[in-house]
């Protein structure tokens, strides 16, 4: 039967010692609904700590990112952008939030754009420790214009900033609080999803925090 197949964007797994693992593949459509459902599922199962895995996450939509952050964080700034004319757009969260739950965010060199800003926001609010490897630093947003010959050109139209006004492009990316490097074989196993979480050096480092 031909039918639409939706690959999960966010998944939940309860690890040992009541530690909840939320893996977010990207911040595209359905991310917020699935990530929030994953968090609520783990908390209802008695999770006392949350680990967010955004390694190999290429980013996605700002509105999906901000919905996830709004669910987690208290009232305040979440994300800001400034276009080339100087017009600023600011996303804010309400007072409803998750409290009393230690958190860790896992990142690596393939965590990009919205994934970087997710980790940065949680750290700036003192909500999470960041573990893993440094990111590249996405700091600009683009607009794609189609040309008459069928080709297209992408132009950077403005800058993105963290809640505290930091441009990740200008600081060279996000540096983890705890740097844990892995070899290529381990990185591929993480990407492919074939590595047991408790054999993952970056997850075990997060569990120890």
How would you describe what is shown here?
The N and C termini lie far apart (47 Å). The chain is α/β, with parallel strands linked by helices. Strand 2, helix 1 (31-44) and strand 3 (49-53) form a beta-alpha-beta unit. The radius of gyration is 17 Å and the shape is globular. The chain is built from five helices and ten strands.
Radius of gyration, in angstroms, nearest whole number: 17 Å
Number of helices: 5
Mean pLDDT: 95
Strand tally: 10
* Uncertain segments: none
Shape field: globular
By helix and strand content, what is the structural category? Answer: alpha/beta
Strand content: 25-35%
Fraction of residues in helix: 25-40%
If strands are numbered along the chain, what order do they take across the biggest sheet? 1-2-3-6-7-10
Largest sheet: 6 strands, mixed
Order of helices and strands: EEHEHEEEHEEEEHH
Termini separation: 47 Å
Topology of helices and strands:
Blueprint: E1 10-15, E2 19-24, H1 31-44, E3 49-53, H2 62-72, E4 76-83, E5 88-93, E6 103-107, H3 114-124, E7 128-132, E8 140-146, E9 152-161, E10 178-179, H4 184-192, H5 201-208
Parallel strand pairs: 2-3, 3-6, 6-7, 7-10
Antiparallel strand pairs: 1-2, 4-5, 4-9, 8-9
Helix pairs in contact: 1-2
């Amino acid at each position: 039967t031909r039918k639409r197949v939706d690959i999960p964007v966010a998944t939940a797994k309860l690890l040992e010692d009541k530690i909840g693992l939320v893996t977010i593949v990207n911040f595209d459509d359905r991310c917020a609904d699935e990530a929030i459902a994953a968090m609520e599922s783990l908390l209802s199962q008695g999770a006392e700590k949350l680990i967010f895995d955004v390694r190999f996450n290429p980013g996605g939509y700002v509105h999906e990112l901000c919905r996830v952050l709004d669910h987690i964080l208290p009232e305040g700034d979440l994300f800001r952008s400034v276009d080339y004319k100087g017009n600023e757009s600011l996303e804010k969260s309400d007072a409803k939030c998750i409290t009393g739950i230690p958190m860790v965010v896992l990142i690596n060199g393939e965590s990009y754009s919205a994934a970087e800003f997710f980790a940065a926001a949680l750290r700036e609010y003192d909500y999470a420790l960041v573990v893993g490897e440094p990111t590249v630093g996405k700091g600009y947003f683009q607009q794609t214009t189609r040309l008459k010959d069928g080709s297209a050109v992408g132009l950077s139209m403005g800058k993105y900033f963290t809640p505290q006004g930091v441009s990740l492009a200008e600081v060279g990316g996000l540096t983890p609080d705890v740097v844990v490097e892995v070899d290529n074989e381990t990185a591929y196993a993480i990407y492919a999803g074939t590595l047991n979480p408790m054999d993952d050096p970056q997850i075990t480092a997060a569990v120890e925090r």
